[in-house]
Amino acid sequence: MIRIFLLIILFFHFAYGEYKNVKVGHVDKYYHNKITTSELKKIIAEVEQTLESQVGYELFGIDPNGVEISLLYVKPSIAKNSLDRKINRYEKKIKVLKNLEKELLNLKDKFENMNKKYQSSSEILNKKIKTYNYYVKNVNENKSLSHNQFQKMKQKVLQEESHIKNEQKKLKILFKKLKSLEREHNRKVNKYNHTIQSSQDLARQIERISHDMKIVKGNTFFNKVIEKKIYKQNNKVIKTHTKETITNKIEIYSYESYGELRAVIAHEIGHLIGLPHIDAKGALMNPILQKNQIEELKLTNEDILNIKRNF
Predict the structure, then answer these.
(1) Can you count the helices (H) and strands (E) in the chain?
(2) Cα–Cα distance for residue pair 86/104, rounded to 1 Å
(3) Are 43 and 27 in contact (CB under 8 A)?
(4) Residue 250 near residue 112, CB atoms below 8 Å
(5) In CATH, what is the architecture of 77-212?
(6) Whole-angstrom distance, CA of residue 78 vs CA of residue 213
(7) Whole-model pTM above 0.70?
(8) Which residues, 6+ apart, have CB-to-CB distance to 118 below 8 Å?
(9) Are strands 218-233 and 2-12 parallel, antiparallel or unpaired?
(10) pLDDT 10s digits, 73-83
(11) Fewer Cβ atoms within 10 Å of its own Cβ: the N or the C terminal residue of the chain?
(12) How far is 275 from 13, CA to CA, in rounded Å?
């Protein structure tokens, strides 16, 4: 039995609007003298009360099994060197992926053409064997043949047998090539899947380091991993098993004040419950952190409309 493992991995930035639970996650020791986990939990609760009091219904809750909100930190000088190295590795992996995509397409075409040839040759050979068996049966049943006639037929049978054996050898060689091509294709698929996974890991690391360099203050991740196992026998799918895992998280990378941390957390929770960015001055969901939100966390009319449209 041949087993083909296909791992497709998917990453996206927004989910459909829905109620979510959150909790305090990892806090880097860099922040230990700046904020406690209980203070962070207090900020989250304040965000919950402020937002929900304005819209009039629940948007999210605080629960030990909720999505983690973590505070992370990396020194900018270390981050810059690491970022450059990871970007270089990522670009190389993208080139490898593009080459593998071309190779897989070529292998697929080659396999399909060879498989068609194999199937066609098999059908032709089976018909020859069937005709041969019918002929031999008639020869054996014919009791009125002369000695010369029998010898001629016998010679013909031997020739047909030799021809069929040669065709069987050719077909066997073709089958081995077909299986070798299939194994090569599966190896390429595994390499392709592994490269996708490692490039996605690098992309997340690049994004995290960029955030630590204060390019952005925080981010919300919606990670969906689909693992599919396909079981094949005689080139036919006989069983498919799919496993789906979803891991969400919020990461905060830097803040200058209590008000800024509160505003960043509120913004990222907005993404968590399904809110997209809006281009409105002063809005919580503006992609650029607004000064008024740092001073006083408050939903604008545009934010409330955004919630009603998407939640």
Answers:
(1) 6, 6
(2) 26
(3) no
(4) no
(5) Orthogonal Bundle (1.10)
(6) 10
(7) no
(8) 171, 174, 175, 178
(9) antiparallel
(10) 756 555 667 77
(11) N
(12) 10
Residue 174 is which amino acid? Answer: L
Tokens of 63: 């629960």
Amino acid at 79: A
Angle, helices 258-272 vs 37-55, to 10°: value is 60
Cross-strand bridge partners of residue 230: 4, 240
The half-sphere exposure of 194 on its side-chain side, counting CA atoms within 13 A, is 6
Task: Establish how many alpha carbons lie within 13 A of residue 183's alpha carbon, considering only the half-sphere containing its beta carbon.
Answer: 7
pLDDT for 289 equals 86
d(CA 201, CA 194): 11
- Residue 263 carries which side chain, given as an amino acid letter? A
pLDDT score, position 247: 60
Q: How does 154-166 read in b/e, with b if 16+ C-beta sit within 10 Å?
A: eeeeeebeeeeee
- To the nearest 10°, report the CA torsion of 49, 53, 54, 58: 80
The reported pLDDT for the residue numbered 311 is: 86
d(CA 250, CA 220): 4
Q: Tell the residue number behind the tokens 């605080």, with chain if given.
A: 62
User: Which range has highest mean pLDDT (74-78, 128-132, 215-219, 233-237)?
Assistant: 128-132
> Could you read off the pLDDT of 235-257 as tens digits, one per residue?
665 566 555 555 688 988 888 89
